[in-house]
Amino acid sequence: MNKKIGSRNFGKNVYKWKKNLIWLTFLLPTFICLLILTYIPTIKAVNYSFHDVNVIGEIQSNVGFQNYKVLLESSGFRKSILNTLILALMSLLAIPLGFVIACGANGVRNKKAQTVFRLGFYMPNIITGVSIVLIFQYILQVDNGLINLALSNILGKKIEIGWLSDPSLTKVGASIIQIWTTLGYNMLICLAGLQSIPTELYEAAMMDGAGSFRRWRYITIPLMRNNFIFLFITGIISGFSRFTDLYILSGNSSSGKPAGSLQTILMYIYQYSFENPSYGLSCAGAVILFIIVFTVTAINLKVTKTI
To answer: According to the CATH classification, is domain 74-306 in 1.10.10.10?
Structure first.
């Protein structure tokens, strides 16, 4: 009797295994791509960060934490970390702006008008980064830039603000580009969250005498929490991974001109990967970047769970 039960269970397990194997075969190509393009390079990068590596990728010697020490003692690398943090945090302004615009779009009852509204704000996301930078280089020009011309007309005097040439203002100019680019995406995520809130909650609150601000404070904001967390995490990752626009704004150089004000960790890594090859240092920089992003994300998730 026990043998029959055992053979039946074995047969069921084999059947389940074969059934799952069919689905696993569909995942195999994706897993292979991840293994080749992500996991193996990541492991090699971590390994390279502890070695002296020549330009053809051959390990010369084990240097331990020397590469990390060189980077952390470098004023240029520390400045690139600060630049990265400032630019990433400034770009997060797209979240509250996107939320405000989403609130306005959610109030539009005409479906066609709302579709046009959403499409118009999402358009920057499908424009190539190079095109966006070229457009804003014209808009933010010192002499004939549209923003300076508009300010000159409003204030009645010549305004020449170096949005992209003054080291103290380049982060503002670069952040304007990033905010404009990501605003539509943030607006769509917030709009989707707003439209998922049951209208019954607002109706019940109105019956209890809650005004528009109280409904917004105690219903809308709490129920949008997950959307805000998602946008914060993706915004931080996007801010830390910026490269193309900053590289072009720096005159196709990883030095972060002017005066290194736009050099981020990623540009620093690029510099020691291609312009002045030192793969051990560049891999150590990549590991540090990963640790920073992982730490910021983990802290954010931990804090939001306690709120």
So the answer is: no
Q: How far is CA 51 from CA 44, 47, 68, 238, 290, in A?
A: 11, 7, 11, 29, 18
Is the bond into 29 cis (omega within 30 degrees of 0)? no
The Cα–Cα gap between 12 and 26 comes to 22
146: amino acid identity, one letter: L
Per residue in 224-277, pLDDT (tens digit) is 988 998 999 899 988 998 888 899 988 888 888 888 889 999 999 999 888 888
Over the chain (307 residues), the average pLDDT of each successive run of 10 is 52 65 81 91 91 82 90 91 93 93 83 80 81 89 87 87 88 92 91 89 86 86 90 90 89 84 91 87 92 87 71
pLDDT at residue 29, as a whole number: 87
Extract long-range pairs of 3-11: CB within 8 Å, 24+ residues apart.
none
Are the CB atoms for 269 and 202 separated by under 8 Å? no
Domain ranges in the chain are 2-48, 74-306
Residue 291 amino acid letter: I
